[in-house]
Structures are given as C-alpha cells and as structure tokens.
Amino acid sequence: MEFQEILDGFHLICNELQGSQNYKNIMELYNRSANLQDLYENGLIIDGTQYEFDLVEHIDTTKLALDRFIQNVLDSDAVVQGHRKITSAFASLKKRLIQKEEQQKVVVMTNSQVIAPIPNQQQQTINKAKLFDTQLSSENLDDELQEEIFNITKRMKGMAVNISEQLKFDNKVIDKILHKQDGNKTKLKFEENKLTNFMKSKSLSCSSLFLMLTTSIFLFIFAIIFIRIS
Known about the structure:
Blueprint: H1 2-17, H2 23-33, H3 36-42, E1 44-51, H4 55-71, H5 77-110, H6 120-127, H7 143-229
Helix pairs in contact: 1-2, 1-5, 2-4, 2-7, 4-5
Subcellular location: Endoplasmic reticulum membrane
Pfam family, one: Use1
InterPro entries: Vesicle_transport_protein_Use1
C-alpha cells in the first residue's frame, strides 16, 4: 500500500538524520503524512463532525516541502532511497484519488435526475458553512448538509491531533536544548573556576620567587661589604 511506503520512506530519512539539525524538519513532514490513510478512508473528522478536506492538495503541498528539504540535505543512500519511496507512493496515491473523484462525478451525473434540487438559499449555506458552525438546527438541514458538516468536523479533528503531536515534539526538543545549555553553563563555570585557581597559584609562586631573589641579592651585597670591611 502507498501509505506504508510513505511511512517507510520517512523512517529511512528520519533514521539517517537523527541527531542532526534537520531532524526536526523531517519529523514535521512525517507528522503531516502519518494519518494519510485515515484521511483517505474516513476524511477529516473532528468531534464527530466531518469537514471538507482536499487530500490531493495536501499531498502536493507535502511533496513540494519534502523536495525543497531534500535539496538542502547531504545526499546519502538512505535519504535518496527514502525520497524515492515517498515520491513514488505520493504519485500512486494521488492517481487513485483523482480516479476516485472522477468515479464519484460519474455517479452524481448518473443519478442527477432522481436527486431533488437544493434550494438556492440552502445551497449557499452549504458552500459557506463555517468549520466550527456545528450548532445549526438539524430540523432545517437536509441530509447532505449534515453530512458536509460532519465531514468538515472530522477533518479538523485530524488537523488538531497533528498540531497537538507537533507541539509535544517541539516541547521535547526545546527541553533538550535548554538542558544542553544548562550543562554547557555548568561546564563553563567549572573551567572558569579552574583557570582562576591556576592563576592564583601562579601568582603565589611568582611572589615567592621574587621574595627569594630579593633576599639573595641583599645577602650577596651584605657578604661583599662584610668581606671588604674585614
């Protein structure tokens, strides 16, 4: 299946870039693709309501971002292989989606003569339905409008889940950076104290040496004077 190929491709790239500065960026792209199968099969559902979601556009956007990311990453066998897997799977999945949409259009055209036309006012309400407008009276909505709101809510729920997962990942990265900075500060403080102690010891050594040299000079002069007097 294309979905597993996409995940496998991202796993190859993520494993290759783990520990590098590019790891966070590739994980963001991975999170955008992790629930593609659920979006393909069920659409976007949030809190029991399904929202309209253009999966083809989502795939194109993710593919474009991935291509730009790969251009700035040092090539390796794992990165190249993972990119090829994802690109091939995206193309295959996009083809399936387009075929599915065409089939749905054919079914709608075939059954158009037996489907009652929607009043203009109600049709405008469907086209302009807001994503969070879930409190409309069900008595005034037909089945198609209720299904549209359900689809939009479902898609928004998936997007909210992705955002929540990304925020959790970002917080972990920030915690690691702060922890590393604290470690660097502690190490720097230790080195500073070590250098200070070293300089103090050298200063004491120089003072002692100077005192000994001065004493020796005075003793030498005193010895010469004493010899001449004698």
